[in-house]
Amino acid sequence: MTTSPFDTVTVLGTGVLGSQIIFQTAYCGIPVVAYDISDEALDRLPERWEQLKTYYRRDLQATDEQLDAAVARISATSDLAEAVASADLVIEAVPETIAIKKSTYEALSKVAPEHTVFATNSSTLLLSDMVDAVDRPDKFVALHFANNIWVQNTAEIMRHEGTADEVFEQLVQFAEAIGMVPIRVLKEQPGYVLNSLLVPFLNAAAALLVKGVADAPTIDLTWRRATGAPKGPFEIYDIIGMVTPYNLAMARAAESPESAAFAQFLKTNFIDQGKLGRASGEGFYKYDAEGNRLD
Predict the structure, then answer these.
(1) Is 179 in a helix, a strand, or coil?
(2) Are 108 and 135 spatial neighbours (Cβ–Cβ below 8 Å)?
(3) Which residues does the UniProt record annotate as the domain 3-hydroxyacyl-CoA dehydrogenase NAD binding (predicted)?
(4) Which secondary structure element, helix H or strand E, spans residue 224, and what is its range?
(5) Parallel, antiparallel, or unpaired for β 140-145 and 154-158?
(6) Contact, 94 vs 104, CB < 8 A?
(7) CB within 8 A of 41, min separation 6: which ones?
(8) Which of 230, 240, 263, 287 could form an S-S bond across to 249 if both were Cys, CB 3.0 to 4.6 Å?
(9) Dihedral of CA 72/13/46/288: which sign?
(10) How close are the terminal C-alpha atoms of the chain, in Å?
């Protein structure tokens, strides 16, 4: 296995993907600090680790000893200065809105050690849109993971024009050290490679739904049967969770009536009811504790 160039890692944000990044990094032997502004979110982490353990046993045949050791490598805090005090790498996985991202980096820049590298897990935003909030542009890079990172193990590494070559290569090495396949993104691109392909597909499905062309199960069935794909778009929405699609739809709401309608649909029918996708047990479909669809 590739050796990590970073001895300690902090992850900002403990949502669906943030918690996966934390657990996978710890599973691969690297101590991780989990940071969230919400103590309530941190209190839910033990339950999240138990859920992820179930997936790792099923998909990776991980042993209880390996999984318990991973959890033992994780600490948690809602104090940002404490979270990053010893961090070699900070991976930011906060909500996908530019204002939240920039305010996070402004606060982070004030408390992180000078040597700490900053990596954003943003799925659509460009580094150059955020770099003016960072005090170390040469140590600022994108590291974007696909969902279910323990099996769909890609990590897109993207630089901006000021990213140091050495930092870019360190992120490639780190991705390999935690079991990812590094995807080198050679030029800044909204959505990188994965979401440049995925987001238009999901948007098209959302438009079909809110315009009343077909319901979600029918759209998913059509895609699976006609293409041989293992999952339809609304099954993918459930894996992603409802919050990120809602934020992305809201960002496009002013220019797209369909995006505005889909954002409202997600808020009313899912987010306000605590149906946040597979991780919560229900989204467009219902799921058991192992993440299997119940229907």
Answers:
(1) coil
(2) no
(3) 8-188
(4) helix 216-227
(5) antiparallel
(6) yes
(7) 14, 15
(8) 263
(9) negative
(10) 39
